[in-house]
Amino acid sequence: MPVTYREAAPGDAEAMDRARTAGGWAGGAAAPVMARYLAGEHHPQQALPPRAAFVAEDGCAVVGFA
Description:
- The protein is built from two helices and three strands; from the N terminus they run E-H-H-E-E.
């Protein structure tokens, strides 16, 4: 199945966290913080709205994000 891309939503935070962990990346935010960020409720450093994040999916599985 081809990899597809779409804008991330707060409900994607758990899958994004799993992809981050599976990739061995220790940086970034854990799922609860990422969900708040995507909902516009968490503003790290100088982050201002609008903001966007995107997920890469292979079928129904999130395999990456930016």
